From TrEMBL:
Keywords: ATP-binding, Coiled coil, DNA damage, DNA repair, DNA-binding, Nucleotide-binding. One of its GO terms (molecular function) is mismatched DNA binding. Residues 693-709 form the DNA mismatch repair proteins mutS family domain. ATP binds at G619, P620, N621, M622, S623, G624, K625, S626. It comes from Cetobacterium ceti. Belongs to the DNA mismatch repair MutS family. It comes from the Bacteria. HAMAP family: MutS. InterPro entries: DNA_mismatch_repair_MutS, DNA_mismatch_repair_MutS-lik_N, DNA_mismatch_repair_MutS/MSH, DNA_mismatch_repair_MutS_C, DNA_mismatch_repair_MutS_clamp, DNA_mismatch_repair_MutS_core, DNA_mismatch_repair_MutS_N, DNA_mismatch_repair_MutS_sf. Residues 791-818 form a coiled coil. NCBIfam families: mutS1, PRK05399.1. This protein is involved in the repair of mismatches in DNA. It is possible that it carries out the mismatch recognition step. This protein has a weak ATPase activity. This is DNA mismatch repair protein MutS.
Length: 879
């Protein structure tokens, strides 16, 4: 690059600064010939983030101008790296042909790339969507929308009512956007909720203004007179957020056509609600260890053959259905392919050769498609037509065969089987398709041969045996004749130059050939690109046909995958009903059974009905309580996505929400302690659950003192039982809670079976009726690998404590016999209390309250649990 063009007063730098000033928040890729150049702060940033060499040239106002550049043909990988780090990149191209322009070439930003608007699919995860999400909150109604411009998916919904913030985090976690835009007013209300979550989950969150007239904007974009067809009528937040997201994308793509034809409104009441905690506790999409998918439900179920199928499966798993007909339809489709083994395996073989049609069509519309993509589309169509033949008119795969055949044949006729990557370098159009192109290729290939043919023909025609055709840069191709043969030169020869011993001539045929051969490569490239553009415009007319095909193939992939997984893992078809009942016989944990040796998993049952909807589950830690509870929740979710389930038999009434409170951990991002986080999650459950929900509570009350914990756990259990009536499993280490079975008519005690043989203890992982009376903590410590010395000391201390407890219990029992033996003893008790009161002149207010409460206690109706709670209450007052 010349040292003068970077000077402050050059037209180029003036042009650069004007364009950069309009894109201050982006790194500007400024096209100069075969390079994208970056200057000033952009150059410094790019060199640091991309490992580029930072140079400096010229001096502007006494300072060197930092400079960094990359070849234009490899820009995509550099853009992807910057965007993955959260930067915006503005692509500034030369929009005029430098060969045809005198002076400064016109340049414009043709596209701005952000994390949520990447269109180069080579740098995206093929099994995941790349979503941009928008959020608008006003008057306690939240609208959220998300879009994937590589596939054309555009969805919107609204949330209102209680716990909007918590429910929003659940939706964000399900959508997993790379970028979120939000208007300033909404951001002020949601900043505390979103900021830490975005940073912790690598989501780029920033403000963007709402469109002033959202409804009109959407109508104009989609060219409709009403939004009723999108179910957006009277949904103000949904319209605002949809318009905001669409405006953002259109702005970044600089008005280019997008593969977006509709907005899909999602009714939240048609989908099971899975909040953030539930998604994470059950390892549905990502595991809690490294946020990967190994050891998740997705990992177990995803054996799809296409990237489109894997993406659709992920959405299906995140959004279990509540529509009975839709669930049963998926079940029936799965059942068909379980029974038709040969057809299923043939289809799965064909699906292996189906490319990502969704993203290919996105490229087609966004005009970033190349000839290899078209070949991939052709191969995919061919395999889709083979699938159609196998299914022989089955309504599960109804496609526009005629349009697809025409598209296949068109690509087959025009594009070579192995085209180059670039659409600008030629070599992608088949021979025989275009006469002019064939001639140009012929000229380019034959070259010297053709010149020799003309030379031979002219010698024969003129009789000049020494006639020669030569070439130089000044005159191009010419015929050279010695002066002795000048009398034989035909009249049509045009003299170009006279030499001492020869004359040089040109003829029209030679000049025509010269024009062709000199410009042949450039003309081939331009003509091939023109033919390619005509083909893509023709194919774009069938965009909706291709998008429909993409979804049908993805769905077929998911359903045949369900059948394959069900057969391989010995799953059964669950019976889905509108009843309250839940019955699972021989249930297994879908994930855990894949992580242990074959046949090592212990099956268990569960039965809930209108008379029994609560299980109080006791047993040692590490004995399988959490696994049992989670397996029930996962089976419920699997049933609601239309999948078969790991059980011998399952009958499942529709469940609107699954709630989990499992484990103990601080939330460092929000500054909540273990106990505060636990109580916040429980509050969300009791405020949101309905009778048709399923609730898992594991070890509630562990983060505080024993009496506090027992009191809280008891109160929560009673509230869920009496006021909600949801199907609930309450796992606890408080054995005292087993006494609730006698007080709560719809509750039942179950425990993890333990086998004791001498000093050896074996956890059988089997759930049986009845409550546990031991914790087996030392045995768990042994299994965890604590040194033998610690275990021996712990056993000694445990024995001492149990002996002391027995002595105390005997003493208390004696006092109880004395104080609480009958009516006479009750009278004695009252007299004793009154005597204490009358003999104490300076008794405190708290002591008086405690004495009054003690006097009011109905001792004969107290359970041991109630007694503990009352004693704890008295202790708090006196302290």
């Amino acid at each position: 690059m010349g040292s003068d063009i970077l000077a402050a007063d050059t037209p180029l730098m003036t042009q650069y600064k004007e364009i950069k000033n309009e894109n201050k928040d982006s790194i500007l890729f400024f096209r100069l010939g075969d390079f994208y150049e970056m200057f000033f702060e952009d150059a410094v940033t790019a060199s640091k983030e991309l490992g580029l060499t930072l140079t400096s040239r010229n001096r502007e106002k006494g300072q060197d101008v930092p400079l960094a550049g990359i070849p234009f043909h490899s820009a995509a990988s550099y853009i992807a790296k910057l965007v993955n780090k959260g930067y915006k990149v503005a692509i500034c191209e030369q929009v005029e042909d430098p060969k045809l322009t005198k002076g400064l070439v016109k340049r414009e930003v043709v596209r701005v790339v952000t994390p949520g608007t990447v269109i180069d699919t080579d740098f995206l995860d093929e099994k995941s969507n790349n979503y941009l999400m928008g959020i608008v909150l006003k008057n306690n109604i939240l609208g959220f929308s998300y879009i994937d411009i590589t596939t054309g998916e555009f969805k919107v919904s609204e949330i209102e009512g209680e716990d909007i913030n918590y429910r929003l985090l659940g939706e964000i976690n399900k959508i997993s956007p790379r970028e979120i835009i939000i208007d300033s007013d909404s951001y002020r209300e949601l900043e505390n909720t979103l900021k830490a979550f975005g940073e912790n989950n690598n989501i780029n969150i920033h403000e963007y203004p709402k469109v002033k007239k959202s409804e009109e904007y959407l109508k104009n974009y989609f060219k409709v007179i009403s939004l009723e067809s999108f179910s957006l009528e009277n949904k103000e937040r949904a319209m605002e957020v949809s318009a905001m997201v669409l405006d953002y994308v259109v702005e970044l793509q600089k008005g280019k056509e997008l593969p977006i034809d509709k907005i899909t409104y999602m009714r939240t009441d048609s989908l099971m609600e899975l909040n953030l905690t539930t998604q994470r506790n059950l390892d549905i999409i990502s595991n809690g260890k490294d946020q990967g998918n190994i050891g998740t439900l997705l990992w177990v179920l995803d054996q799809c053959k296409s990237s489109m199928g894997s993406r659709l499966l992920k959405k299906i798993i995140k959004n279990p259905l509540l529509n009975l007909d839709e669930i049963r339809e998926r079940q029936n489709h799965t059942e068909y392919f379980i029974n038709e083994v040969l057809i299923r395996e043939e289809l799965r073989e064909n699906l292996k050769n189906v490319y990502d049609i969704e993203r290919i069509i996105g490229k087609l519309v966004l005009e970033t498609i190349n000839a290899r993509d078209l070949v991939a589309l052709k191969v995919s169509i061919r395999n889709a037509l083979e699938i159609y033949k196998y299914l022989n008119g089955n309504p599960i795969f109804e496609i526009d065969v005629k349009a697809l055949v025409e598209a296949h044949n068109l690509i087959e006729q025009i594009i070579v089987d192995e085209p180059p990557f670039s659409v600008r370098e030629g070599g992608m159009i088949k021979g025989g398709y275009n006469k002019d192109l064939d001639e140009l290729h012929d000229i380019s290939k034959r070259g010297k041969e053709y010149i020799l043919e003309i030379e031979s023909r002219e010698r024969e025609k003129t009789g000049i045996k020494t006639l020669k055709i030569k070439y130089n840069k000044v005159f191009g191709y010419f015929i050279e004749v010695t002066k002795s043969n000048n009398h034989l030169v035909p009249e049509e020869y045009i003299r170009r130059q006279t030499l001492a011993n020869a004359e040089r001539y040109i003829i029209s045929e030679l000049k025509e050939y010269e024009e062709k051969v000199i410009n042949a490569k450039e003309r081939i490239e331009n003509l091939e690109f023109h033919i390619f553009r005509e083909l893509t415009l023709k194919l774009k007319e069938s965009k909706n046909v291709f998008q429909d095909l993409a979804y049908k193939l993805a769905y077929l992939d998911v359903i045949t995958n369900f059948a394959h997984v069900a057969t391989k893992n010995n799953y059964t078809k669950p019976e889905i009903t509108k009843d309250f009942d839940l019955e699972i016989i021989g249930g297994r944990h879908a994930i855990v059974e894949k992580l242990i040796k074959s046949g090592g998993f212990v099956k268990n049952n569960i039965i809930f009905n209108s008379g029994k909807n609560m299980i109080i589950l006791t047993g040692p830690n590490m004995s399988g309580k959490s696994t049992y509870m989670k397996q029930v929740a996962l089976i419920i979710i699997m049933a609601h996505i239309g999948c078969y389930v790991p059980a011998d038999y399952a009958k499942i009434g529709l469940v609107d929400r699954v709630f989990t409170r499992i484990g103990a951990s601080d939330d460092l991002l929000t500054g909540q302690s273990t106990f505060m986080l636990e109580m916040s999650e429980v509050a969300n459950i009791v405020n949101s659950a309905t009778r048709n929900s399923f609730i898992i509570l594991d070890e509630i009350g562990r983060g505080t003192s024993t009496f506090d914990g027992i009191s809280i756990a008891t109160a929560i259990t009673e509230y869920i039982h009496d006021n909600i009536g949801a199907k609930t499993i309450f796992a606890t280490h408080y054995h005292e809670l087993t006494q609730l079975e006698g007080q709560l008519k719809n509750s039942e005690n179950f425990r993890i079976e333990v086998k004791e043989t001498g000093d050896e203890i074996l956890f059988l992982r089997e759930i049986v009726k009845g409550g546990a009376d031991k914790s087996y903590g030392i045995e768990v410590a042994r299994l965890a690998g604590l040194p033998k010395e610690i275990l021996t000391r712990a056993k000694d201390m445990l024995k001492n404590l149990e002996d002391r407890k027995a002595i105390v219990n005997e003493k208390i029992k004696g006092e109880q016999l004395l104080l609480f033996g009958g009516e006479e003893k009750e009278t004695f008790q009252e007299e004793k209390i009154e005597k204490i009161q009358s003999s104490t002149e300076d008794i405190s207010k708290e002591e008086k309250i405690a004495l009054r409460l003690l006097k009011e206690i109905e001792l004969n109706s107290l359970t041991p649990m109630d007694a503990l709670i009352k004693l704890n209450e008295l202790k708090r007052i006196l302290n």
